[in-house]
Amino acid sequence: MKELISKQMRSNFKHLLDIDNLTSNDISKLLENSSVMLEVINRDIKKVPTLRGKTIITLFYESSTRTRVSFEQAGKILSADVINITTSTSSTQKGESLYDTALTLQAMKPDILVIRHPHSGAPHFLANHIETSVINAGDGTHAHPTQTLLDLFTIKKQLGSIENKKVTIVGDIRYSRVARSNIWGLVKMGANVTLCAPSTLIHKKTFGPCIESENHPFNMVQIESDLLKAINGADVIMPLRLQKERQAHGHLPTLREYSRRYGISNSKMAHANPEAIVMHPGPMNEGVEIDPDVAHGRQSVIEDQVTNGVAIRMALLHSISSGNIMTPETSN
Q1: Do 85 and 29 belong to one domain?
Q2: pLDDT lower than 50: segments of the chain
Q3: CA-CA distance, 43 to 52, in Å (whole number)?
Q4: How far apart are CA 225 and CA 203, in angstroms?
Q5: Residues 219, 100: one domain?
Q6: Residues 202 and 252 sit within 8 Å (Cβ to Cβ)
Q7: What are phi and psi of 143, to 5 degrees?
Q8: Do 127 and 151 fall within a single domain?
Q9: 3-state secondary structure of 307
Q10: In this structure, what CATH number is given to the domain that contains residue 258?
Q11: Within 10 Å of residue 192's Cβ, how many Cβ atoms?
């Protein structure tokens, strides 16, 4: 029994700051554990005592629905006490710094702090200065690791595996933390990744100082500006939310032009694998990066992503709380 558990564990799992901190074995185990958690979600009584007595604080400096609510639901299903803090009602409105806010929260002895912040690196800063475990729920244009984990889980659940699947990510690569983390995760798990966007929305320098390394995931992906070529034979198509505010930077001509060339429509989907799935990290700009018929069509698994997000975050909260990635006990 001890030997079995040792193979399932990943020791010293205190924080989740980005996907590059995880090995492929770590990711595989988290996805496996998420299947267990998904079974809990599908029960009539969605409650297990796994994290009873634990306290989770969510601290969001940016608006969020899916991520914040799914962390809250995940914690409550596992019987943890969950405290949600939004900066519009916190002392940050009075000028309190992120560091001082974190120290104040740490004094309340929480077990896990889940943070979303507009500045890249904020979760890493906190992990280096407080004792509480930190989960990155999205930081600036840098990373969104839990979104990547739920995306990987969805692909595996829908297609049976991730390895050798062709995944095409379309859209605002330059500013997307989802794209960055997904590139790391998909490459680690053996997928073939293609990025498709206007040249103004793909910028190598934004992927980090180690971009020149041959082992950097960005150097293992294909870049294609022609959407039909990019999705030809694709197993997974993932349009990203077009951040309309970026138009002020002159990266795009018009939304109509962008939608015509890069929006995912049924006619363009005909070039993909017939059994291809369509994913989206949300929220969607329907009629811009994705047509409503595709977003809510037969090949869309966008609603499944939301459900899977709760399961992934349940598995993650359990693993970080225990300090190891191991199979959870979910009996009532």
Answers
A1: yes
A2: 1-9, 210
A3: 19
A4: 13
A5: no
A6: no
A7: -155, 155
A8: no
A9: helix
A10: 3.40.50.1370
A11: 18
Q: What is the pLDDT of residues 250-301, one digit of tens each?
A: 677 788 888 999 999 999 999 999 999 999 999 999 999 999 999 999 999 9
Q: Which two tokens stand for residue 195?
A: 């990025």
Q: What tens digit of pLDDT does each residue of 88-122 get?
A: 655 566 568 999 999 999 999 999 999 999 999 99
The reported pLDDT for the residue numbered 55 is: 98
Retrieve residue 18's tokens.
């980005």
Supply 88's token pair: 């519009």
Residue 130, domain extent: 2-144+307-322
Q: Give the side-chain half-sphere CA count within 13 A for 18.
A: 20
Closest CA to 280 of 197, 201, 179, 129: 179
Going from the C-alpha of 262 to that of each of 198, 232, 233, 239, 247, the distances in angstroms are 9, 14, 17, 9, 15
* Rounded Cα distance, 40 and 332, in Å: 10
Number of domains in the chain: 2
Measuring CA to CA, how many Å separate 228 from each of 77, 138, 170, 225?
Answer: 43, 30, 11, 9
Compute CA 248 distance to the chain's CA centroid, rounded to the nearest angstrom. Answer: 27
Strand-pairing partners, residue 195, are 169, 223
Residue 22 is encoded by which pair of tokens? 């995880």
Task: Quote the tokens at residue 242.
Answer: 């077009």
pLDDT above 70 covers what percent of the chain? 87
Q: Angle, nearest 10°, between helix axes 24-41 and 66-77?
A: 70
